[in-house]
Amino acid sequence: MLDMYVIKEGKRLRCGYTTGSCATAAAKAAAIMLESGNIVKFVEIDTPADIRLKLEVHNQKLDKDKASCSIIKDAGDDPDNTDGIEIFAEVKKREDGKVNIDGGDGIGRIVRKGLFGEIGQSAINPVPLKMIEKEVRDVSNSGYDVIIYAPQGEIIAKKTFNANIGIEGGISIIGTKGIVYPMSEDALIKTIYMEVDMVEETYGLDNIILVPGNYGEKISDGLGLSEGRVKISNYIGDSILYIYNKGFKSMTLVGHIGKFSKLSVGVFNTHSKVCDGRREAFIYYLALMGAPRELLDKVNNAITAEEGLNICIEAGYSEIVKNMERGAEEKIRKYLKDEDYPVKVIIYSMERGVDI
User: pTM value?
Assistant: First the structure.
């Protein structure tokens, strides 16, 4: 367990180590066992973060011509789907000094251009590749064939973004620092950027569909908007700026009234910890429509956006949704500093769908 902490939103959160560090440690431990003929219980590696890790080794196997072992991934307090997965390495000695590294069972393969490798290559990022080669060369100059594998990888990969960014069949071996820093928004945003890149590679720079999450994806399917689509979570501002600067000709956003009511008044990170302006958005648009104070007070007491919407519709103000959509489109154009940019916003309700 890594005894390293960061403070996020006033909370003390423990850091962990990446799948890249796990693969590196497993490969180094297997190489040491192969060279020494002894079982290794702990192994130390360096990380790009300049933090040296000492990790416990599991499932050690030593044969005449090969050795293998595993390291258990510890994500610390980060909500990481790969937390607890076992990353294995099998190492065979070479006599030509070369180090060949590949992925085996449970490690994904690249199936689209635009990622960190070529189509067909294993999904082991450049930084972990360098880490593995450096650490096994520290053991010996003989050279090695290294296979990284994760028996649980294919199942766990279904909980990740891999399929959306062009990786199939397993997890990725990743990590630019070797250390997992809890609750990293940067990592989520970079994943969104990678998905946008995949859309560009597959569909070109025409219209792109943006949805906050899985239900928005389902709604967009029903509208026939299934191609060139990216899930952007709460990061509307970061996403649309990246898309605009990439040169996409237009964008369509499909989202729930709870998130997009905020967008309609210019909120571009819709996470509740950043802003909760749902009722304020309803009141703003109702006021523009000349609604009576009594209705504004009633909406102001609503607990959810769905409740606020129902109050508006029952009072004869169903047009508020179309006004919010147009307002969100205007706010996006101002955010992009391009008043002529083609953007379409579609708001749906869980209870009423898109036919509001």
Answer: 0.73
